[in-house]
Amino acid sequence: MSTVTHPGPGETTTVAPAGSAKPRPVAEFLSTYVFSKDHKVIGLQFLFSTLVWFLIGGLLALAVRWQVAWPWSDVPVLGKLFAQEGGQMSPEFYTMLFTMHATVMIFLVIIPILAGAFGNFLIPLMIGADDMAFPTLNMLSYWVYVAGFHCVWCQFLRGRWCRFQRLDELPAAHH
Q: Residue 3: helix, strand or coil by DSSP?
């Protein structure tokens, strides 16, 4: 059995055998929503990613404010992570929290939501363009953003955020 579309004036008839086009839902989903080159989809990807990071930055701010409000008291949910300090937040970890909060809010929320979400979604619509000038580069900008926030978050979780080598730890300092 074949499907026939009836042509309009000046069009040709196309015949496609039934069963020749098998639906591939996973590949279609990946090409439509994950690796899309459409500026609206990329704008929404930036928007939802920045909203997730806004939530994470808010939780970091909450932890910073907990330390300011009740210094040297047990942290309610995260106290088990601070078993070495008796359930209390160390000054080094407070510095990491404060710096990570600022980094997340500036580089992973404010800038991407303005340039990535609103810029990708609204600017082409406002100027009447069908799409961005370089759609592949536009898609890659989102995936570089994703790789960047994975690098930042992994460094924070490893405890290496804001860890500078002190001058007295340098080998040349012991001469």
A: strand
